[in-house]
Write a structure and sequence with these properties.
single chain, acyltransferase, Lauroyl/myristoyl acyltransferase, transferase
């Protein structure tokens, strides 16, 4: 069944991927109506997350952010499909790295870097542009899909410009392989980690929030500099990422400091462009 669904879906995915960008975004507007206005996909989750995160905003403001997020969400869905046919030239026109020399400076003397990113639209293209632009390895941690056919397709899309995709459970093995080599390992810092010994408790967007300590512990173990990857939406279909230093010498940093820093950076980014974060995610369970 998984194989059948894959082969039935593939022609449609490629049909969408070959569309010119203006037509792609017209289709995104239609998808927005279907997914959110008709089906009502997670609309209450989105509104609840927004209300709890911005208690001082009016209901009108909350709804305006929600509607903008919905369009951003369907834009990203189709931009991800577009990755099937996206060229390096097209990507370079639409996604800019504002300070690429910053990473190169940190990577001198074969230094590794841990890059923390939030689920800010479009984080998938951010991985592509970094791997396309850097002379050093860009490693992206991922959780394999259950459907092995789609998993292979997504891996090929994400790695088409040179990124090294690393299954979550093989992270340590890959890092040992790259010891004494310059690289950037990209980790999402805003996923729900559950509650346990390996989490950090803080306040994020006016709510008690648990954060996975993997970023901080990996940086200390590898003595890798930590940077925050700040993604901004410039206009529809155009983005920019700026790298900001969180900690250059993590081993000397007290526990919790790095995690608190990247949460505060992400919070500031979300407050600046609230409609670009993944509000449909059940972050607070």
């Amino acid at each position: 069944m998984k194989k059948v669904s894959y082969w039935l879906s593939l022609p449609l995915l490629y049909l969408i991927a070959i569309l010119p960008f203006p037509v792609l975004y017209f289709l995104s507007d239609i998808f927005k109506i279907l997914i959110f206005d008709i089906v009502g996909y997670r609309k209450q989750v989105i509104l609840t997350n927004l209300r709890n995160s911005f208690p001082n905003k009016s209901e009108k403001e909350i709804n305006e952010i929600s509607v903008k997020f919905q369009r951003n969400f369907t834009d990203m869905l189709l931009e991800c499909v577009k990755m099937l046919t996206l060229t390096q030239t097209q990507l370079a026109r639409r996604f800019k790295i504002t300070n690429p020399e910053f990473l190169l400076k940190l990577q001198e003397n074969n230094r590794g870097i841990i890059g923390v990113v939030g689920h800010v639209i479009n984080w998938e293209w951010a991985g592509l542009i970094q791997s396309q632009s850097s002379p050093h390895a860009t490693m992206i941690i991922y959780k394999p899909l259950e459907n092995t056919f789609f998993d292979k397709l997504v891996l090929n899309m994400r790695s088409k410009f040179g990124a090294v995709l690393v299954p979550m459970k093989l992270t340590l093995r890959k890092l040992i392989e790259y010891k004494n080599k310059p690289y950037i390992l990209v980790l999402a810092g805003d996923q729900y980690p559950g509650k346990g010994e390996n989490v950090y408790k803080t306040t994020f967007l006016n709510q008690t929030t648990y954060v996975f300590l993997g970023t901080e512990r990996t940086a200390k173990m590898m003595d890798a500099a930590v940077v925050f990857c700040s993604i901004k939406k410039v206009k529809r279909g155009h983005y920019a990422v700026t790298f900001e230093l969180l900690e250059e010498h993590p081993k000397a940093t007290p526990d919790g400091v790095i995690t608190e820093k990247h949460i505060r950076f992400l919070e500031e980014q979300i407050i600046d462009q609230p409609d670009t974060w993944l509000w449909s995610h059940k972050r607070w369970k």
